[in-house]
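ok trying this again, last paste got cut off
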Amino acid sequence: MRMLQNIFWLGTKEIRSFFRDYVLLGFVVYAFSLQIMAQAHSFSQEVHNASVAIADEDHSELSRRISRAFLPPYFHPAQGIAERDIVPLMNLGKYTFVIDIPPNFQRDVLGGRNPALQLNVDATMMVQGGLGADYAQQIITTEIHDFLSRAEGAPLSPVNLDVRIMYNPNVTTAWFTSVMGIINSVSMLAIILAGAALIREREHGTMDHLLVMPLTPFEIAMSKVWANGLVITTAVGLSLYLVVRALLGVPIAGSVPLFLLGVAIYLFFACAIGIFIGTIARSMPQLGLLYLLIYLPMNMLSGSNTPLESMPRWLSTIMEASPSTHFVSFAQSILYRGAGIAVVWPQFLFVAIVGGLFFALAVWRFRSVTAQTI
């Protein structure tokens, strides 16, 4: 009971110190609010409301079918323009795509003469232009095929391919990047807050006070873990409910409390890394440099940005031993696919075991450093 009381009161001291550090407090608020919204809206990887114009020089049924085939949410309704206005309007950046349908296009298609149809793309709109050109080609090809099938009386294919995209039907990038932004922020802030707590104690001179008190290194380290973990877990819950679900309108398929339980387990590992590098660094700039060397590879190779299947075999095997990889995996399973505890408990157990080992290593390092200081 004495140990639990020491850990509790030291943790409350950490929480009070955190709320007095306005830079870290503002960073946490920004990371789980504005950064999530900016990441969701700026990293769009799909065509959305692209502007289209059609210079129809044929005025046939086929050309009208092609004009009506460009529909929201991928494209704005196609606007009719004259052929002489294509270059001036493209130079002004008014349209991302301009389709020029030549005269006698339908007659040449029916005659099997393979007429050319020009698609002009504003390549300065990189994502829209690159993906939208493929979309436009597919739309035009489908309309021509359907038109020829009806015009020549050819039977349609007896098999229809019905594509169903699970969990994200419209392949909306914001649904993925917003949740992944929260997951990445958990690792980032856990390492920074735990490491900064030790640096702050050393810079303010309060570490010497703690060392002369009847406290063990385990109690000091554990108090920092639960205090910073409580701050991050609370911020994650508020971000999921207020930012992701309310402001961005992203549906959460699974149980948020179950995900928060997984976050709390993972924080033992992330905070242990912060404490470990906090015992090595002597100042906040040094902590920042060490943080970059650890966090960036761990984040990029965890599966949040690139699937493990796309990595070399030896690299994916190494990352399977990292708790960050399993954290991303069970977070996606819970929040995207609605998985329950029966599905994710093996990953919870693995993260807890490896996180406990890393925490023991951090406490050992902390005890060695404090012994040298004394």
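PB: full thing came through this time. The chain has two domains: 2-43+172-373, 52-151.
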